Please model this.
Amino acid sequence: MSNHLYDALLAHRTDDDRLLLELGDGAGWTYRDTISLAGRMASVLVAHGARPGDRVTVQVQKSPEALALYFACIRAGLALNPLNTAYTSAEVQYFVGDAEPAIVICDSQRAGELGAIAGRHGATALTLDADGSGSLTDRAAEADQLTPVDRSASDLAGILYTSGTTGRSKGAMLSHDNLLSNALSLVEGWQFSPDDVLLHALPIFHTHGLFVAVNITLAAGGSMIFLPGFDADEMVRFLPRATSMMGVPTFYTRLLAQPGFTGELVEHMRLFVSGSAPLLAETHVEFAERTGQRILERYGMTETNMITSNPYHGERRAGTVGLALPRVEIRVADPDTGDEVAPGDIGVVEVKGPNVFGGYWRMPEKTAEEFRPDGFFITGDLGQIDDAGYLQIIGRGKDLIISGGLNVYPKEVEAEIDAIDGVMESAVIGVPHPDFGEGVVAVVVPQPGAPLDEATVIDALTHRLARFKQPKRVLFTGKLPRNTMGKVQKNTLRDEHMDILETSR
Ligand code: AMP
Model:
């Protein structure tokens, strides 16, 4: 009997009394406790009719029990389907209809609505609350350990829905080996060891907090300080006990704004990792000035796990996402033809390797569209690779603006705007323009109290950018719309400002 992921990450730790999780209130969970609960939860899932290969849709708050549920699914050969806790019932209805899970697990407060959705789709509903209580843990308390179910490298371990900023959200099918191969590469690349204590404040419904952070910790045999979410005061409280931290860029900007966040506080830390959204070069520099440490930026996506990383030893280049991970191939291609572009040119980033998912759940046509015939997955991100092999992400392909037939890369315009005195950050979008098809619009967040207006920004750009790249309008806001993973929601901005250039000529 063998279970590819479970055997590598958990099977040999069932009697391990070392700490796996330390909670904010000082409570701790050992490997033994967590895996034992997972073994009993696995029995509960099976007793409720889940068979190997079935999906388990989960919308619950982060907790040790929610993490044990992930382990339980792996142990029982089920595909975990975690959902963002912010999704409404109507959204959950779509995911349940699409994933067709055997079991739906939700917070007891939403058991009425979600239980009805589960019922309509022939699934059983169980509950799990933020404090660990609920019908799942009640039943697990009385259950026996389930013998791990046989699973091969290519069997499904999870289905994670993409954020679906255009069109319907798609379920990325991730296999046992997609997850394991990536975790092993990262343990080596980032030098994780049993001595590591990872400060974990990310959500566990997304690949970053769930697979990157958790699987690396398990593969290395380390532990995590497991916080329910990001709170700058809590981070400052726990950083002295951690060796490493993973975060989205907003974690870093918020830490830098925190008075207690000093170089001394993190002197002992060996690694800060950033990903899921672009880290501003300015944040990288400010962080290095404050702490003497360089944030290690990496790049990946739900469908591919991690693709590139700046080196642990060696140069961490601000504004780049580093080099391809071992056994991962990347190339930059012409989006239309798929031909590789000349070195240094911009094109769409494509990737191949054991980390890349098997396809979108029940969407064979969509899957076929996003793979090249030679097996490379088309990420949809635009990028360029420099002479030393470092990849720079220029933005999402769908954010590219075509104004009067000319390509405008929002990131280039944003970088010029961000360099203007008094600008904190900016987002550049394309909206319909009667003459040019699309016109450039900038949404700018000024630094507090900075005397910025539209004319100042436009004047500052006159000699810095070709005319077709200059914004036709500059709007000001206190804050850019971001999702939980720190990504700027450009489609929200586009919707909001759709008509702003309608009368332009
Ligand atoms: P997700 O599937 O939610 O993880 O989103 C993946 C997308 O996040 C990628 O396709 C990129 O557009 C973006 N992303 C992830 N990491 C980075 C990074 N370090 N720099 C820029 N964009 C990133």
About this structure: The pocket of adenosine monophosphate is lined by residues 162-163, 207, 275-278, 297, 299-302, 321, 379, 381, 393, 396, 485 (CB under 6 Å). The radius of gyration is 23 Å. The chain has 15 helices and 25 strands. The longest helix spans residues 31-47.
